[in-house]
């Protein structure tokens, strides 16, 4: 970047080297010639951190002076990925650091690769939060992210005999140079206990919560730099500690072991990220986590971020709390409690403010993924909050009765409290009632929220409902991860596109430029080779760098239909081995999978085992002459995504229509020049509309077709009976062809469940999918046509920058 105010002027290689060496000596306490790679990594990280800190402090001073309205993004997950490279990119210190280290004989890339990524999220929702804080900073929005500093992030995945094994993610093992703990700003949070009534001198009735145990939240600050704009925002993650008072009381009582046990109980709260991302179990510790970080964050904002003696009646002028799904929704009764019990406000005043400061983003459509908390559990842990929720519900149902007199059924449907199967709080309903706005994450998803999941609420509060289509940060997912493509783009259209992604449109004419296409292919080819190198080293997987890279990477879920992809692979293999398909007609392809299964999700784990079994067989079959390969590197994470996505030619987005709220991997692939084979689901719909039907392989039932088929009675067995290729593929799996003749265990349970039930209609979409794959192959056979499509995918996907998402949030929600 030569036009941006270059860091070089204030930060020469020389001074960088001096600061780096200082960090080696005085930060790590070692001589350079005795320093380990980790010492050098930490020293480099701290050098960059110091540079950021100057700007961070300046950002904080400005905000204290100007007191602009801010956004607090509350999320139980922030799937950040590695920090060093990103921060070098944002500060434009990359070249200086490289030159400086070169002179010292140190390899920058090796240091970057030392970093263990903070995997503080499960998948899409957590990564979205990370993209959003990046874009908030880049779009110059005063904002703060609030979340949990899990000691263990998403588990590390290994395969043992093809089966998933989970290991703890010890991401803090080698030290964490990016965080700044602030124990002096710790916050105390209560749990359990009782609620008492009391009267003040004037005789006014009040309620008071006396918790019976407490936990201390220690804030850890992370700096979130905007892209070369001088702003550095804060991400504040909370870590749980035992409260000192609690410790002392028990120690003084002489019970040392009890005291230690109490400490452990407290610290358990931020110990580990729950690895389920759907069908959440109502686990008490999970609710403790949610209340813990939300209570800390509200108190922090009200008491530390806002000026002292700020009049909270004006809170809506200063903040929106954006709730990332329902995980932080307990913030609603917590703010009510704070205003009413702790500040003596009247209910109506507190409710008026509360309804203005919260907004809710929904990320799902699956009914089983909607969070509910049994009232007995919630009432035991947070008795005052349950009372408040009941009162919110009473007043809300009163409103429902007024709006729809005599409609008892509606009242029951809309109640925040579900009666069946156990009395529970429906968190999405609470969020919808309390929030000023409710948004879905793609056009189709928002429409389905209005029409189906929350239709009664949309009827009652039409003004609340809106859409903000997700986006991804082009900093990490283009500039950082795909430097070759980025350089080619910059050469073609100049600087500036990284923060103004619609400018990629200027590439459109180049799709017709043969020389540009050649260079584009060269970039892809380089990226494939780079990816091949990484998985060879990391996983011992050998692939040809010339074969088409066909990638399906996302959490393992039945609705995402990895099994449909697998049926396609098995069908190809079956047709080849049975002689129906001449090898010469088979497009050389590497089928790449990346997927973690929730540890308790048996069917998902069986699917992983089956993919690995099929892969082992196909990869070892010499008769294929290496034309087909299955590559399933373990432990797919942000870091691996950064080398895989730029290498991909084909992006698999094949969820059952109406099930994937948005998807964000789909956007990353399109922006890196992969073509999509996909259903009419989530943001695929918008991707296809933008890139055009000729450059997107659409297949399968759309959402209305799925609903109709469901209503008329779906019988998967009929597809098995009537499609001989499908039958042959399923039979081949069931015969034990991939499991050394073993027809038992997961083989029979997976095939039987597909043939007999097939919850997400993979069989119904099989034929359309195979046809789409044949269109893929025909298009690929014409490399010029394919490259043209790939370039147009890049050129027309600028809309999917998370910068645009943030601007949409500003216009539709935060300034509204
Ligand atoms: C809730 C309660 C208890 C335990 C776990 C959970 C939990 C945790 C994570 C529930 C859901 C999640 C994650 C959901 C998620 O990642 N959803 C995805 O969000 C993306 C960003 O909007 C969308 O693109 C995806 O379509 C959606 O599946």
UniProtKB/TrEMBL annotation:
InterPro entries attached to this UniProt entry: Glycg_phsphrylas, Glyco_trans_35, Pyridoxal_P_attach_site
The UniProt catalytic activity note for this protein reads: [(1->4)-alpha-D-glucosyl](n) + phosphate = [(1->4)-alpha-D-glucosyl](n-1) + alpha-D-glucose 1-phosphate
Q: Name one GO molecular function term.
A: 1,4-alpha-oligoglucan phosphorylase activity
Write the Enzyme Commission number(s) for this entry.
2.4.1.1
Taxonomically, the superkingdom here is Bacteria
- The keyword Nucleus belongs to this UniProt entry's keyword annotation: no
Q: Which UniProt keywords apply?
A: Carbohydrate metabolism, Glycosyltransferase, Pyridoxal phosphate, Transferase
**Enzyme class, first EC level, given as a word:** transferase
Cofactor(s) recorded for this entry are: pyridoxal 5'-phosphate
Matching PROSITE patterns = PHOSPHORYLASE (PS00102)
Protein's UniProt keywords contain GTP-binding: no
Per the entry, what this protein does is: Allosteric enzyme that catalyzes the rate-limiting step in glycogen catabolism, the phosphorolytic cleavage of glycogen to produce glucose-1-phosphate, and plays a central role in maintaining cellular and organismal glucose homeostasis.
Which family does the record assign? Answer: Belongs to the glycogen phosphorylase family.
Which protein is depicted?
Answer: Alpha-1,4 glucan phosphorylase
Which species is the source of this protein? Demequina muriae
């Amino acid at each position: 970047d030569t036009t941006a105010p270059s860091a070089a002027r204030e930060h020469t290689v020389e001074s960088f080297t001096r600061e780096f060496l200082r960090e080696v000596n005085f930060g790590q306490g070692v001589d350079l010639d005795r320093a380990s790679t980790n010492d050098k990594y930490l020293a480099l990280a701290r050098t960059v951190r110091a540079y950021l800190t100057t700007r961070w402090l300046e950002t904080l001073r400005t905000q204290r002076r100007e007191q602009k309205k801010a956004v607090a993004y509350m999320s139980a997950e922030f799937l950040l990925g590695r920090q060093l490279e990103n921060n070098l990119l944002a500060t434009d210190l990359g070249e200086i650091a490289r030159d400086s280290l070169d002179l010292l004989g140190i390899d920058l890339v090796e240091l970057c690769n030392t970093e263990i990524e903070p995997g503080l999220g499960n998948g899409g929702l957590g990564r979205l939060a990370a993209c959003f804080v990046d874009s908030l900073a880049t779009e110059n929005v005063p904002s703060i992210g609030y979340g949990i500093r899990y000691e263990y992030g998403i588990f590390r995945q290994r395969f043992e005999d093809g089966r998933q094994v989970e290991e703890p993610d010890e991401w803090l093992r080698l030290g964490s140079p990016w965080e700044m703990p602030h124990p002096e700003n710790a916050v105390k949070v209560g749990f359990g206990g009782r609620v008492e009534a009391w009267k003040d001198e004037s005789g006014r009735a009040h309620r008071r919560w006396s918790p019976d145990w407490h936990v201390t939240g220690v804030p850890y600050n992370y700096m979130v730099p905007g892209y070369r704009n001088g702003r550095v925002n804060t991400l504040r993650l909370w870590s749980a500690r035992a409260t000192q008072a609690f410790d002392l009381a028990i120690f003084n009582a002489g019970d040392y072991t009890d005291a230690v046990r109490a400490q452990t109980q407290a610290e358990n709260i931020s110990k580990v990220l729950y690895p389920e991302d759907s069908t959440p179990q109502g686990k008490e510790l999970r609710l403790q986590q949610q209340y813990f970080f939300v209570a800390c964050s509200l108190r922090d904002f009200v008491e530390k971020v806002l000026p002292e003696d700020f009049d909270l009646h004006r809170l809506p002028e200063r903040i929106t709390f954006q709730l990332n799904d329902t995980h932080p929704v307990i913030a609603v009764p917590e703010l009510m409690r704070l205003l009413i019990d702790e500040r003596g406000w009247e209910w109506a005043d507190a409710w008026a403010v509360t309804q203005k400061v919260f907004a809710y983003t929904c990320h799902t459509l699956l009914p089983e993924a909607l969070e509910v908390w049994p009232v007995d559990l919630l009432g035991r842990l947070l008795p005052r909050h349950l009372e408040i929720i009941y009162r919110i519900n009473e007043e809300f149902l009163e409103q429902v009765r007024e709006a729809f007199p005599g409609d008892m059924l509606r009242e029951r449907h809309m109640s925040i409290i579900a009666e069946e199967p156990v009395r529970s709080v429906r968190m999405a309903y609470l969020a919808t009632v309390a929030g000023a706005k409710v948004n879905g994450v793609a056009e189709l998803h928002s429409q389905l929220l209005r029409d189906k999941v929350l239709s009664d609420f949309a009827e009652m509060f039409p003004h609340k409902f809106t859409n903000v289509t997700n986006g991804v940060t082009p900093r990490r997912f283009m500039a950082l991860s795909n430097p070759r493509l980025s350089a080619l783009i910059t050469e073609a259209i100049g600087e500036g596109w990284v923060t103004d992604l619609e400018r990629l449109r200027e590439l459109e004419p180049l799709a017709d430029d043969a020389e540009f296409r050649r260079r584009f292919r060269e970039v892809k080819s380089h990226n494939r080779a780079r990816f091949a190198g990484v998985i060879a080293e990391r996983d011992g997987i050998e692939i040809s760098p010339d074969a088409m890279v066909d990638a399906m990477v996302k959490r393992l879920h039945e609705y995402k239909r990895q099994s449909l992809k697998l049926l396609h692979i098995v069908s190809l293999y079956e047709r080849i081995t049975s002689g129906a398909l001449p090898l010469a007609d088979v497009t050389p392809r590497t089928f790449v999978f990346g997927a973690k299964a929730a540890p308790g999700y048996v069917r998902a784990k069986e699917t992983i085992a089956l993919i690995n079994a099929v892969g082992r067989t196909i990869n070892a079959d010499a008769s294929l002459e290496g034309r087909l390969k299955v590559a399933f590197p373990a432990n797919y994470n942000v870091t691996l995504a950064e080398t895989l996505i730029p290498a991909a030619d084909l992006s698999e987005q094949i969820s059952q229509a109406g099930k994937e709220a948005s998807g964000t991997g789909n956007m990353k692939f399109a922006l890196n020049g992969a073509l999509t084979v996909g259903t009419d689901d989530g943001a695929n719909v918008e991707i296809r509309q933008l890139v055009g039907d000729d450059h997107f392989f659409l297949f399968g039932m759309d959402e209305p077709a799925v609903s109709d088929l469901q209503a008329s009675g779906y019988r998967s067995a009929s597809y098995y009976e009537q499609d001989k290729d499908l039958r042959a593929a399923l039979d081949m799996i069931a015969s034990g062809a991939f499991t050394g003749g073993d027809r038992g265990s997961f083989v029979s349970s997976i095939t039987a469940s597909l043939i007999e039930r097939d919850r997400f209609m993979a069989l119904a979409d099989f034929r359309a999918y195979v046809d789409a794959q044949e269109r893929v192959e025909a298009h690929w056979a014409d490399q010029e046509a394919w490259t043209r499509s790939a370039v147009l995918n890049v050129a027309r996907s600028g809309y999917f920058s998370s910068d645009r998402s943030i601007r949409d949030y500003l216009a539709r929600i935060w300034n509204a």
